[in-house]
Amino acid sequence: INLEYSVAPVGHVILQILSLDGKHIDTITNSIQTQGLYNVQWTPVNVSSGMYLLQLRSNNQIQNKKIIYLK
């Protein structure tokens, strides 16, 4: 699954997948990143089809997007 996101100022970025009830499923990125557009791939392992939250944390901000994973 290709995921695209942008980082405005340099900062610590955490990109993770959560279940709808908030349980941690996978961490895709956990690093310091510079300003720019990023494209990463998520390869689900032992993950059921369904709806999940894609959570991006950066510079004291949190953004959530719902995603649907179908096998």
Mean pLDDT: 93
| Tally of DSSP helical segments | 0
Strand content: over 45%
Number of strands: 6
Q: Helix and strand string, N-terminal first?
A: EEEEEE
Biggest sheet strand order reads 3-2-5-6
Which descriptor suits the 3D outline? globular
How is the biggest beta sheet arranged?
4 strands, antiparallel
In terms of structural class, how would the helical and strand content be classed? Answer: mainly beta
Helical content class = under 10%
Termini separation comes to: 11 Å
Low-confidence stretches: none
What does this structure look like?
The chain has 71 residues and is an all-beta fold. 0% of the residues lie in helices and 69% in strands. A four-stranded antiparallel beta sheet has the order 3-2-5-6, with no helix packed on it. The protein has a two-stranded antiparallel ribbon with strand order 1-4. β5 (50-58) and β6 form a beta hairpin. It is globular and about 35 Å long. It starts with a strand and ends with a strand. 7% of the residues are buried.
How is this fold's topology laid out?
Blueprint: E1 2-7, E2 11-19, E3 24-33, E4 36-41, E5 50-58, E6 61-69
Antiparallel strand pairs: 1-4, 2-3, 2-5, 5-6
Would you summarize the structure shown here?
The chain has 71 residues and is an all-beta fold.
Summary keywords:
71 residues; mainly beta; four-stranded antiparallel beta sheet; 0% helix; globular
